[in-house]
């Protein structure tokens, strides 16, 4: 090999090694992707452990942090905003590199986020959004488009009743009051069904995203509503709780009462394959790897998108059995 060819080979090998380090990829010499050798510490405040979706989301975040060589300080807020605020203040005291969290509700964050900003600790939102008008309070928001999820739920229903004129009585199990998914899934759904007056939401109440509460509220709906055609549940855990109530009332879920759900967890796919849920609008909890990449970029001072939406689909009953073995959560 000529001297020139050998030199070119060495040079390209050098470039390959340096770019691997600089990109913060798995070959990188440092977790923060800057090649500085500093191991990133991230404070993560999780909503709680209220649903199968949340369990999968927590695992995804924890596994991704380990894989990325990031030290994760994890706090479970048990669905209480005051616990999340306390956790964020503790992360500020501990001088973590980045704070990431899924806000249990949309409002009431400006004060504590200003404290993080004053401490020069960047904040990344994941899963749920805040309604802060001050865009300087967080660097980016990675998560689903809940309005779109609600629209997809509404679109399925409109198609089901195309050409029919009888009234369609809907009961709605809302997610946690004040949370972005509850507000937006309701907004997207009602925006679609309002086009046809036969669709009527005859009862709507929060089931707080849990099976137990979903069952309890569905029992109340069954007692108070003379005719229920459809249940729209803002997540699978409430739908699965409602299925128990419907069956205990001697009715067939998926047949006597059609069920529209959101999330796409394995247990819901099983219920769909048994004909008990009619459609499931997917909401992807596996955000961990994207979140860690985003955190590294934010810490390294790189430009990042303000809003990163996750990819997700819609699954109907006829697709459930085939899809179930491949479901990752
Ligand atoms: C949605 C997430 C919601 C899920 C529920 O991104 O915030 O919270 O739909 C979970 O299952 O409890």
Automatic annotation (TrEMBL):
Residues 1-22 form the signal peptide. Residues 42-302 form the Periplasmic binding protein domain. Its main location: other. InterPro entries: Peripla_BP_I (IPR028082), SBP_2_dom (IPR025997). Keywords: Signal, Sugar transport, Transport. It is found in: Cell envelope. GO terms for cellular component: cell envelope. One of its GO terms (molecular function) is carbohydrate binding. Gene3D superfamilies: 3.40.50.2300. Pfam families: Peripla_BP_4. Belongs to the bacterial solute-binding protein 2 family. This is Simple sugar transport system substrate-binding protein. It comes from Kitasatospora atroaurantiaca.
């Amino acid at each position: 090999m000529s001297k020139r060819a050998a030199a070119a080979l060495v040079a390209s090998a050098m470039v390959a090694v340096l770019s691997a380090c600089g990109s913060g990829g798995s070959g990188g010499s440092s977790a923060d992707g800057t090649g500085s050798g500093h191991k990133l510490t991230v404070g993560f405040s999780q909503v709680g452990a209220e649903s199968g979706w949340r369990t999968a989301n927590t695992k995804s975040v924890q596994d991704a942090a380990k894989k990325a060589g990031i030290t994760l300080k994890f706090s479970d807020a048990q669905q209480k905003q005051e616990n999340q605020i306390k956790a964020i203040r503790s992360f500020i005291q501990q001088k973590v590199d980045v704070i990431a969290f899924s806000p249990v509700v949309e409002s009431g964050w400006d004060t504590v986020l200003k404290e993080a900003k004053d401490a020069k600790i960047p904040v990344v939102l994941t899963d749920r959004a805040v309604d802060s008008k001050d865009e300087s309070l967080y660097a980016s928001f990675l998560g689903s488009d809940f309005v779109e999820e609600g629209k997809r739920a509404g679109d399925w229903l409109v198609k089901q009743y195309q050409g029919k004129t009888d009234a369609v009585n809907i009961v709605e199990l809302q997610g946690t009051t004040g949370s972005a998914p509850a507000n937006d899934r309701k907004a997207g759904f009602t925006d679609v069904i309002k086009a046809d007056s036969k669709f009527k939401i005859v009862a709507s109440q929060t089931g707080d995203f849990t099976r137990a509460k979903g069952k309890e509220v569905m029992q109340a709906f069954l007692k108070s509503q003379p005719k229920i055609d459809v249940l729209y549940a803002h997540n699978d855990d409430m739908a699965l709780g409602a299925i128990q109530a419907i069956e205990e009332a001697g009715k067939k879920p998926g047949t006597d009462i059609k069920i529209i759900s959101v999330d796409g967890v394995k247990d819901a796919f099983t219920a769909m394959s048994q004909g008990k849920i009619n459609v499931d609008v997917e909401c992807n909890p596996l955000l961990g790897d994207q979140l860690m990449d985003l955190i590294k970029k934010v810490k390294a001072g790189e430009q990042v998108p303000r809003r990163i939406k996750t990819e997700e689909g819609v699954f109907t009953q006829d697709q459930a059995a085939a899809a179930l073995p491949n479901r990752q959560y």
